[in-house]
Structure formats: structure tokens, C-alpha cells
Amino acid sequence: MVQKFRKKIIAGNWKMNKSVAEAEDLASGIRRALAEVADVDVVLCPPFTATKVVGDIIADTAIKLGAQNMHWEGYGAYTGEVCAAMLRDLYCHYVILGHSERRMYFHETDEVVNRKIKAALEGNLIPIVCVGETQEEREAEQTEEVVGRQLRNGLVDLSGDLKKLVIAYEPVWAIGTGLTASPQQAQDVHAFIRGVLQEVFDEDTAQSIRIQYGGSMKPANAVELLAQPDIDGGLIGGAALDARSFTEIVQAAQ
Ligand code: 13P
Predict the structure, then answer these.
(1) Residue 136 catalytic?
(2) Which protein residues touch ligand 1 with a CB less than 6 Å away?
(3) Catalytic residue among 101, 108, 133, 170
(4) At what angle do helices 183-200 and 143-154 cross, to 10 degrees?
């Protein structure tokens, strides 16, 4: 097996936080600290209402813009939704898909996530595909079954440059709880995910795809998590809402 170099990718998922003015402040702080960073991919995913202002602030830097969700159709009567072309129009490069909060509160199924991934790839966006088990599923030793199913169903029938896909392993029990998977727990699941990617795609693709960890990642635990061989970055919630802690996590990835 050829070990591939994978550039680390740290993305901030701001979820439903920040007014336009607050987003401007946060993006400006992150820009001041990270505009020159080239050895880590940095992505900001503000709420839709702040996408434009954040995009303008980071426009001439290496920091990239992402969205937190999108619809699978290209246009039409889907009240409240946005499509891939609208995100590209605002210079988004990435889109988070299948986040556990969307699966849980908005009943997104693996099939829906699959449709969205296809639409994102067709629309020239890089999907950040989230998978992860609940506390009950972990306790019942179903982690691999659940994560394997989410991946196999979510990634079926894709075409295009699949090496650019990003997967985020986010154990639901670690999101916003202050509980973090131990580096070993996370590494075990990441290695499992890479094995599934090899089955679904091929070895070269599986070795190229970056797998982020998400779930209470903070400056204090980032170094150890990011040192694991199959952990290629982080998808950060709470700690991404503060310029200093987000910056420190990016520095931990360098
Ligand atoms: P926290 O970092 O707040 O646990 O959130 C993780 C997450 O859900 C990122 O998408």
C-alpha cells in the first residue's frame, strides 16, 4: 500500500450562530491570524445569512468558504432551500452534508444525503460528508455497522473526482458535549472508514480522501487527535466561534 500525503483540513461549522455583524468580526479575526496559512486548508462555514459578508472578507486569502447544507435539486419550488449554483455564486467551495443535526432534526436519510452529494459534485462543490454513531449505538457495539451503512448508502453511484471528497467522522455523543473520542477511539473508526472507502471506491481514492474528526475538538485536544495517522483534520463547532481557539486548532494542524 502506498502511503499518501494528505494535507490537513480544518473547517469551522458555525451552525445557527452569529449575526451578520458578529460574523464579520469573527471572519476578520480569523483572517488576521490565518490569511497566510498555506500548509493547512482552512474552511469557514457560516450560516447562509452571513455567507456573502464572510466570503468578501476572506476573498483574497487562501481561506475557503463553505455552506452547512443545500438542496439536491438545481432550482424550483422548494421553499426555504438553496441549491449548489447559489452557493457557487457566493464563491463557496465546500458544503457540509449529512450532519447528524440534519439527520436528527430534519430527518435526512442516507438516500437524501446521497442525492445531495451527487448534486454538490455536479455543481462543482466539495462535499464534507458527515457520519457518526449515537451513544446508544456505540454502547451496543454498532459503531462500525452504523458508520459503514451511512458511508455505503451515502456514497453509492458517485462519479467525478472523488479524491476531493471529505468525510467527517463525528460521533454524535461527542458533539457539543465536551466529551471527545480518545485519539485511539477516533483513529480506530477513521481506519475503518478508510477501509470502507477502499471497498466503495479503490485504494488510491481511499488513500487520497481526507477524513476529519469532529466532536468537541479544542486547542487542548487537537494536537493529539491530529497526530493520528488517519485523522486528516477537524470539523469544529463550538471552538470555531472564537477566532483565537479556531486559530489555535489550525496551528495544531501545522
Ligand atoms: P462541537 O465542536 O461543538 O462539538 O461540534 C462539532 C460539530 O458538530 C461540527 O460539525
Answers:
(1) no
(2) 13, 99, 170, 175-176, 214-217, 235-239
(3) 170
(4) 40
Mean pLDDT of the chain: 97
Mean pLDDT, residues 29-48 taken together: 97
How confident is the model over 226-235, as a mean pLDDT?
Answer: 98
Enumerate domains of the chain plus CATH numbers.
9-252 (3.20.20.70)
1 alpha carbon – ligand 1 mean position (Å): 32
Beta bridge partners of 210: 166
Report residue 219 as a C-alpha cell.
486547542
pLDDT at 3 over 80: no
* Distance (Å, whole) CA 187 – CA 198: 16
- In this prediction the pTM is 0.98
Mutation to probe ligand 1, out of 175, 225, 241 (largest number of atoms < 8 A from CB): 175
Average pLDDT over every residue of 24-28: 98
| The one catalytic residue among 99, 108, 137, 190 | 99
The pLDDT tens digits for 162-192 are 999 999 999 999 998 888 889 999 999 999 9
Distance 174 CA to ligand 1 centre (A): 8
